[in-house]
Design brief:
- The complex is a heterodimer of chains A (about 260) and B (about 400).
- By secondary structure, chain A is an alpha+beta fold.
- Chain A has 2 domains: about 5-210, Alpha-Beta Plaits (2-Layer Sandwich); about 210-260.
- Chain A has 7 helices and 9 strands.
- Chain A is elongated, with a radius of gyration of 28 Å.
- The mean pLDDT of chain A is about 90.
- With about 400 residues, chain B is mainly α.
- Chain B has a single domain (about 50-335), classed as Formate dehydrogenase/DMSO reductase domain (Formate dehydrogenase/DMSO reductase fold).
- In chain B, helix 3 (about 55-65) packs antiparallel against helix 5, helix 5 (about 85-110) crosses helix 10 (about 210-235) and helix 10 (about 210-235) runs antiparallel to helix 11.
- Chain B is globular, with a radius of gyration of 22 Å.
- Chain B starts with 16 loop residues before the first helix and ends with a helix.
- Classes of the chains: A alpha+beta (about 260), B mainly alpha (about 400).
Amino acid sequence: MTEIKHHAYLFDATRCIDCRACMVACSVENNIDMDKTRIWVAGLGVTGEYPDLQRGTMVYHCMHCDHPDCMSACPVGAYTKAEDGPVTYNPDLCIGCRYCMNACPFGVPHFDYDKGIIEGAFIDKCTFCPQRIYNGQEPACVETCPTDALEYGDREELIAKAHARIAEHPTRYIDHVYGEFENGGTSYLILSHVPFSELGLPNLPETPVNEVSEKVMEMTIPFALGWGAVLTAVTTGVALYDKNKEKSAADKKAETTK
Amino acid sequence: MKLNLTVQPRFRLNFSPLVWILLTLMGIAFVVAMMRYVFGIGVISDLSYSYPWGFWISFDLFTGVAISSGGFLMAGTVYILRIKEFEPLLRPSVLTAFIGYVMVAIALLVDLGQPLRIWYMMIHWNGTSVLLEIGICVMLYLTVLAIEFAPVALEGFKLQKWAHLIHKFIMPFVILGVVLSTLHQSSLGSLLLIQPSKLHPLWWTPILPIMFFTSAISIGFAMIILESSLSSRYFQRGLETHLLAKLARAIPIVLVIYGLLKFSELAVAGDLGYLFTSGIMSILFWAEILIGVVTPIVWFSIKENRESANGLLTGAIIVLGGMILNRFNVSWFAVKHPDPMFYMPTFMSNVKYFPTLPEVAVSFGIFAAGILAFGLAAKYLPVFEDEHSAQAHAGD
């Protein structure tokens, strides 16, 4: 395998047979309960009229965004985005506020609702299998996929591959690689034969979702300092004005009593 | 008007039926909270992967912080603008704010997955997070409110000298308090900025922080009217109608600005089409605008309503009703989480959210504790003008 600069997945919805082996592989590899799987495979049923029937399956997976909203939202910085792709979560910092779950447009982070404060309730999400990818192996879900619906590689190469596949079968695919630009680019790329909204994917702009909130946050400290200065000036101004008024009133009083 | 409190022996607890009800609510909330700490949030609430935030955030955080905005408004009016005639309203509103923020903090200790780590916000900073800003502001502002209220408590314990000392150095804290309030009242709106794909376009706008700040001002004024009216009824105390009438006069001005901002923003963003085409969302939007903005503008523009005790109370309740609906809309009703059919396996997660009874019980218990705390403080500390007027004026 060539050296990978930016780890990424490519999911091809036309190839997925809904076997859910990736869910099992993920749970085994990462030692998590089956009912807390980090991947969720959803068969979307058969659509269309005979003979033009279509079946769709979607593998929901952390998108490992280039501008992760979970990371932008987390107050204590429990998320990190690695230079080479993976978005990871650090339970040692997490306070359990669940703002990341709100922020993620894909609904990826999951929370331990069944744990008290003694066991500790944490967020769980895909880690991109660092124990595997940094040792030259594929992530568990990709390795186990029997139909190559999930593939792993360098992001640039996978995008090229996806476009090549669309060019090869222009009638089979929708001419778009979901994740190439969505939300500022993601590391989980999706090819589909049905509209992406039917796969349950949100229609996102090319600018990251967190752009506006990060811009507002940048203005916070300058605003606070400016507002504080204005208030201090007003306070002193009003105080001086009051003092003068009292003084002149006192003077007047003194004059009239003379 | 003279209070008859001096006739009664001090510090004798008087268990009226209201107090019993409040104590019961608190007891239930305590038991439910203990269950949550042992067995997890899922046991007592309907929160799920698709609905990580629910009633607690909408009621305890969004509503709780909003109704506590009277504190900084009055502190700013009396100390910074030196409009001394509002002084009788200062102490009750600072007390309301202080209790309100303590309630927010307690509620967050139930809602957070790791309540023991709440102080992590002080040392681990992620500068892009709006929640961090709110956390820090609330912690600091709670301290400021404690300092602003300390003179009252100290006077209550007959420590006039100390009260005087704090009073002398209060100005920097007042300014800090106003800055912190401006920041986090508006940032509660910014919390939703990260959800353009989830929050309905009738509410999502880049100026959400400005909208929140403007409405917080109207909520603060309404809350001062409400709390003065109710406490005057409960304690058979005189009502500062002439002062409340001035606040009631300010409310329509704030609300007109709010309405203009809201609709011009919708027009600029090209979202006016949603006003009538989004079904239940349009209805919620119009309910919020009609109850929280239009009706109060009309109501408080009528002089008789501003100058009668009943008119003031009714108007304040209308404003609060509409604006609290706004907070619920923004933080809950109008937030569309990823389609649960596709995203959320039914065995892992609820596909619909409706607050459970225990969940609501926690919030109500905390609210009951707040009312009780206010009552106790109002009874035993020189909160209302009647008792302390002479000392307060001597303190300036």
